[in-house]
Amino acid sequence: MTRAFALVMLILWLETGRGTDYDPILTSSIQVEQVDLAIKDSKRSREIPIRVYLPADKTAAPVVLFSHGLGGNREGSAFLGKHWAKRGYVAVFLQHPGSDDSVWKDQPVAQRMAALTKAAGPKDFLLRVQDVPVVLDQLEVWKKDGSHPFAGRFDLGHVGMSGHSFGAVTTQAVSGQTYPLGRGFTDDRIQAAVIMSPSGPANGNTKQAFGNVKIPWMLLTGTNDSNPISGADGKSRLVVFPDLSPNSKYQLVLENAQHSAFTERALPADTGRRNPNHHRAMLAVTTAFWDAYLRDDKDARQWLDSDAVRSVLDKEDQWQKK
Hints:
alpha/beta; 8 helices; Rossmann fold
């Protein structure tokens, strides 16, 4: 082997992500702290329940928010919050009154679909997008309050936003989506976003809606990711990615993943068995994404941008970046 050939092989090895020990799945055995609280928004006479997953290290940590889907609550998708916290992030899971589980759980079975459909309207969308800055404002207050248990625990200079389904719609709104007449809900404190089961804009103009998204986005969906309430399916969820500006954007399409794949439990309309590797893939790519764009971890960015990411995916899964 010539010296020049060895150098070329070394460069290729590094560029494919095998030149580092970066592993987005690896966590410690230390249990994370879990705290349930409620934030009072006096201006709207509204109370927002939250669940906070805290890493063992008590120094200030980057913050990742999560918005649940229609009919969910702050307890859902806990596998994400626990893993992110073990990786050193404060994970704050919001519960949105009016579009949470209170909508359906006390309703007769025959009336639940109608109640959920009503809760998916513009009124609750606005409540949701307004919840996000209220929560961030309160985290800032707690961070500065020396008597509060959360004092000094939040690095609010590094904030990520995430959500599933209606929570994905919420995440899109506060992290860069543009709406007709120029109206928007973007919170500039958010530096990166993970969007699970994304949705196209109501007016169908994806270039107008997503062409000006300035921060890194990661989209996750499945080939069977359908929702009977919104009418979205695996195919329609793919309209978002093509019109995103080519600036640190990623999309993972999990083969045969259904809408419930992003949660811990199956939904009544599910067919077929769940693939346990889907959660592993979600944890890996989202963790690498947070590491890359909230911690400026070059090894994580290299892992995302190389073929190394395929090591956590099934052969049929589709991975795109731009």
